[in-house]
Amino acid sequence: VNELDLLRDWRVPEPPAADVRDRALADLDALFYAPTMPVPVPAPLRPAGRRLLLRAAIALAVTVALTAGVVVWAQRETDRRLDAVGRIHLPEGTLSGAPGGKLPATFLIVGSDSRAGITDPAFGDPAQQTGERADTMILLRVTKDGARALWVPRDIFINGATPPKINSLLEQGAAAQIHGIETLLAVSIDHYVRVRFIGFERIVDALGGVRIPIPYPARDVRSGLDVPVPGCTTFDGPRALAWVRSRSLQYYFGAAWRSPDPVPDIGRIGRQAQLLRVIATKGRSTLRAHPAALVRLTDTALRYVQVDSGLGRDGVIAVSRALLGLSPGSLDTATVPWKTVGLPPGGEQGLALDTGASFSPSGYLLHGSGASTPGSSPTTCK
Amino acid sequence: VGECAGHDGEDIRASLPDPERFAAVFGRHFDAVHGFVARRLGRAAADDLAGAVFVEAFAARERYDQARADARPWLYGIATNLVRRHRRTEERRLRAYARAGADGAAPLDDPHDRLSAGAEAPRLAAALAALRASDRDALLLFVWADLSYDEVAVALGVPPGTVRSRIHRARRVLREHLAEDGRPLAPIEGGDS
After folding, report:
1. What is the rounded distance in angstroms from the CA atom of residue A184 to the CA atom of residue A159?
2. β-strands A191-196, A105-112: how paired?
3. Residue A363 contacts by C-beta under 8 Å, 6 or more apart in sequence?
4. Mutate: best of B34, B80, B123, B139, partner A, most A CBs <10 A
5. A103 near A186, Cβ under 8 Å?
6. pLDDT tens for residues B121-176?
7. In this predicted model, what pLDDT tens digit does every residue of A343-359 receive, in sequence order?
8. What ipTM, to 2 d.p.?
9. A contacts of B118 (beta carbons < 8 Å)
10. Residue of A7, A24, A39 with shortest CB distance to B124
11. pTM
12. Residue in B45, B55, B82 nearest the CB of A28
């Protein structure tokens, strides 16, 4: 035993109390969102009795000041961002919702195919993408207790088994699309929200990545997805986007690359719903640890949405947060019942609404009845 | 997220545009930094100062060498700077500890200090109190923060050779104090008032 060993064993510290850790992290967290960086001044040590009292007083004062400051600042930031949110002007009478955005309300969320902002060549040359097609359509019912998301497959025909597909209606304008979905599913749509996919990429990055369970080695040569090793995989924003955009996903099993999706679009919907749930879970745990992150995440989300001109500020915030699982209550997911259509040779492939299904889109949206999760692996990652 | 060791340099680089990413660095090292400060100044002081280490680190993160995967030398360097501002407190504690141990009384106000008895503890405390402050910093970074000589050099911003000689000198003082076995401890000045 030498002097170093003696020293090493002397006064071995215990881990800090949980509240000490929390307080230190909260101090740091306040800086993350502070508009300007304060100069840290460590408090001098004082005799115990006075120190305690003083510390309590300082803590109180600082908490009050910080809270007030953060709230005021956050409100101002959010207001500014809300003013900048893009507006879509629709013909009067297109939407059922009263101006404003009182809850509960049904939103049509259109994930647009717009390539703007995506520089990855895997998604094609932005200059060659003309027009705008709806890549993803979700009916989102937002109530005070939670949200329900109903995916509308893009390849579903609006008139039984004959074209056009619902997807192509956007080319005739948002109003045509809203009307088509309302007619097909017997639902009324209160508000219209367009989301750029790149927004999800940014949200995933803002959350520090998400963990997705991948059952087999996976690839999509068209979207650039490549996961050589199966298991829980951390996806950053671009990889998460490649995952949910993938329409030609292949898994390596049975000694060959095979498509796991009987219908590519339906498989993709499952992955999108899965990502949304994973984002919601991650978002909630992030908020528990850093309540102030709400402002930042909302701010990020607001950059990538456009809303109908009748939707009020509260409605914009409600739908953005519901979509990210940041509002209280659960986020449920389901898919419109579908069946493959027997096609004449050479005809256009597509899906038809399964009118024989017991699942009713309006019953699900309005009352949550018949909730089902679109097909995807039920396993989750820690 | 927390399952891998993590790369501090990458998180710090990512935290430049995205400050939240710094929380990963906090998560990896807070407990250890707190423990280090608690060992030197006591738990109550560590509860205040450990957080300040990360606040300073966050403010200075632009200057961090992002190639370094392990931020411990940097963080312990900041911690050492903060501890140094409380040098008198530290030395007073050490002397009181040495004195109390010699009297057989319960040392100090910090209940956690009592947990570590050991016959040599008073002599260790006396030895540490007797060290030159810069020697003590180097020694404790080496032994308590578990840094290598090179890492201590990074933490203190001095050449490795200087670290080597400081630690060497500190060890000699420690050995001298511990060798006073059976003999009365050298008289210690009361520094409190």
Report:
1. 8
2. parallel
3. A369, A370
4. B34
5. no
6. 888 889 999 999 999 999 999 999 999 999 999 999 999 999 999 999 999 999 98
7. 655 566 778 888 888 88
8. 0.82
9. 6, 9-10
10. A7
11. 0.53
12. B55
